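User: Here's a chain of 128 residues. Predict its fold as tokens.
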Amino acid sequence: MTTTESTALSDRVVSILRTAVPTLWGSAVVWLLALIPALESVRDALLSTGVRELVVGVAIVVWYALWRWLEPRMPDWLTRLVLGSARAPGYALLAGPVAEITDVDGRPVRVDSNGIPIVEDSGTAGDH
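Assistant: Prediction complete.
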């Protein structure tokens, strides 16, 4: 099956998947680690109120960062399994200017794609 415009996931769905799936995996990793008998001596300290949330949060961040680093080297099926989608969501740029930028005389100022004003030399070389 090929992906078409009608079967492709929306960017919103992709962004939700790429948030939810690593969260589930990170939480599962912490749960599995809590079952390891060798960690029983520190289990109560790590899973006490407040610390548990921190441990789960760190596990989620580490899971996500590790797989994002590995992502360019992985097949798409594995990326889907560990991150929820083989593509990152796209975020559309705003169409048109949000506000017009003018100089002190009220003339429009051109800006580059980052919103930085483009300084144009209005004089000629040697004019002083």
